[in-house]
Every structure is written in structure tokens, then in C-alpha cells.
Design goal:
Elements (H helix, E strand, L loop, with lengths): L1 E5 L2 E5 L7 E2 L6 E5 L16 E4 L3 E6 L3 E6 L3 E6 L8 H6 L1 H9 L3 E10 L2 E6 L6 H10 L4 E3 L2 E5 L7 E3 L4 E4 L1 H6 L17 E4 L9 E11 L4 E4 L2 H10 L1 E2 L2 H7 L2 H14 L1 E7 L6 H16 L1
Parallel strand pairs: 2-4, 4-8, 10-16, 16-19
Antiparallel strand pairs: 1-2, 1-3, 5-6, 6-7, 7-8, 9-10, 9-11, 9-12, 9-18, 12-13, 13-16, 14-15, 17-19
Length: about 300
């Protein structure tokens, strides 16, 4: 049994998860192998790998990898397909199934990447391909610690602060982004079979302790760098659009009302802006400085 820490939780796993930090002081999550019933229900969605869902558990399947059953915020059962290359099990487990488990624990989950600046967290939302991970990587090049990549978990239990729980020290990047950040794509492992996306381990500069969320930038491509503050109503729309899980899963798990309340609290508490910038990897350092200056000026 391996022992890890992520999102402030102790994880004990039969499956090796080398992306995570070793060691756990608590036993909050168990990940173990088992046989899973792969029967589909009416909730089944091929694009989200969902087989079935109810108020206590959700079952995911990825072809040629395996099936995960996520149960009550504390357990993930893994049923591995025959001939699976187990190098690809960690990204399967640690992205959608782990996000579902965190949701089951009452956290608000956003599709976002984030870095720590001056004792607070700045997060980047956006549709797939808008450069969330790349933008976080560019700020990391300036010395700002990575907090999370792709799955942002927010603890909103405090009336005073919305707290970001750090995930694990990695970025998932397309080859051109890897090159722009100074590394060679061929030297980095693939995220999935037949995918060009790569894992970049963050050996230094990872934020290990929770910090308050201070600002959210919604990324879009445009003709020039510009920042537009969003109203709480517009912010709520963006947060809802980029949050997890999807509508059908919310309904199946009975969590729609709770997620609506958390999204509304976030939109009314945190500064959310739309950040437009040219689609140009050669100017990543300029973009990072632009964000650094705006964040510093508007959150002091």
C-alpha cells in the first residue's frame, strides 16, 4: 500500500501514483483494486466516461484503461482492463474520478489552474485550449509556486475565506507549450496513450499548504492584452460553465442545489475578470508580467 498526500488529504493506494507527494498523516481516502459491475444506466455518457451515478457513488470507464467506482467521498475502486499499460492509470484516476471524490466531500471543483502570489491564489479558468496550464507555467517561470493544474478544489466552509487546497506538483502541457517553457516534449511522459499532451513535474516551486483564493481570470484569445472585470452575474455564469461535475451528474447525485449555492457565493465574494490576450507563445513572459502587475495592483 502506497501513502500519499493531495488536496490536504491522506491517500492510501494499492495503485502507485507517482505524481503525488509521498507520505500521509491521515487515512482519508482509500484507493484499491477490485471487480466493478460495468452495467450502464440512463445517466451513461460516452464523452464523460460515465457509466452510472447515484447519491452515494459514481462509476467511470475509460476504454483500454479500466473502470473506477468513486464512493461517498472516501473510496475509489479500480478495475484494470487486461493488458493495460499501468503508466496511464494515474492520470485516469487523478483527474475525473478524484475530482468526483472531492465533489462528494462538499468542495467546489473548477476546471482551472492556479499559482500562489503574495500569500494568495490566482486561478485561471477557460475552455479547453485557452492556455490555463500554460499561463500557470509562465508565472511559475517567474518564481510563483504552482498550486494546482486542471482541478481546482475550493473549501468554502469558512464565512471569511475561500480556501484553495493544493493538488500535486505537475502541469499537463501540449508540446508547443512545453517548448515555450524551456523543455523538450520528447523527454516528458505522455498523459494518455496516443495523446501528445505531456506531464511536466514541478520539482521546485509547489505550494504545499492551503491559501485563500484572491482572484480569477477567465482566459480568452484576443488582439491585445486587456482585462475586463465581470459583474457577479457574469462571474457566476463563467464559474458554473467551468465547474465540475456536469449537469446530469449533479442531478443524479442530488447535488445541484448545493453547487448552485457555492457558485453564487464564489461569484459574489471573489474578483473575477476576463483576460484577453494574443495567441502567441513567444510572448508568454510578457503575459506573466502583465498578470503579475494587475494582480498586485488590484489585491493590495
Amino acid at each position: 500500500m502506497f501513502s500519499y498526500t493531495a488536496y490536504g488529504l491522506g491517500i492510501h493506494s494499492e495503485v502507485p501514483l507517482p505524481h503525488l507527494m509521498l507520505g500521509a498523516k491521515t487515512k482519508d481516502i482509500i484507493i484499491h483494486k477490485g471487480t466493478i459491475n460495468r452495467t450502464e444506466s440512463a445517466i451513461a455518457r460516452k464523452d464523460e466516461f460515465v457509466l452510472r451515478a447515484n447519491t452515494k457513488e459514481v462509476c467511470f470507464h475509460q476504454r483500454n484503461v479500466g473502470t473506477c467506482l468513486v464512493r461517498e467521498g472516501c473510496e475509489i475502486v479500480v478495475d484494470i482492463d487486461t493488458n493495460t499499460d499501468e503508466r496511464f492509470l494515474p492520470p485516469f484516476i487523478l483527474i475525473v474520478p478524484l475530482a468526483m471524490l472531492l465533489h462528494q466531500r462538499g468542495l467546489l471543483i473548477l476546471h482551472a489552474s492556479a499559482v500562489a502570489i503574495n500569500g494568495g491564489v490566482v486561478a485561471f479558468l477557460g475552455k479547453s485550449g485557452q492556455g490555463k496550464s500554460t499561463t500557470a507555467g509562465a508565472l511559475h517561470q517567474l518564481g510563483y509556486p504552482i498550486v494546482t493544474d486542471d482541478v481546482l478544489a475550493l473549501d468554502m466552509s469558512s464565512p471569511e475565506n475561500i480556501t484553495v487546497l493544493p493538488s500535486f506538483p505537475q502541469l499537463r502541457l501540449w508540446p508547443e507549450s512545453v517548448t515555450s517553457l524551456g523543455q523538450t516534449p520528447e523527454n516528458l511522459p505522455q498523459v494518455y496513450p496516443n495523446s501528445e499532451k505531456r506531464f511536466r513535474h514541478v520539482s521546485d516551486g509547489f505550494q504545499k499548504t492551503p491559501l485563500p483564493l484572491k482572484k480569477i481570470y477567465v482566459l480568452e484569445y484576443g488582439t491585445q492584452e486587456e482585462i475586463e472585470p465581470l459583474t457577479p452575474q457574469s462571474a457566476f455564469i463563467e464559474v458554473t460553465r467551468q465547474s465540475y461535475p456536469i449537469k446530469e451528474l449533479l442531478e443524479a447525485t442530488g447535488a445541484a442545489a448545493a453547487k448552485f449555492q457555492l457558485g453564487a457565493k464564489l461569484a459574489n465574494t471573489i474578483s473575477v475578470c476576463r483576460l484577453k490576450r494574443p495567441r502567441c507563445l513567444s510572448s508568454l513572459s510578457d503575459l506573466a508580467r502583465f498578470i503579475e502587475n494587475d494582480f498586485t495592483q488590484t489585491t493590495d
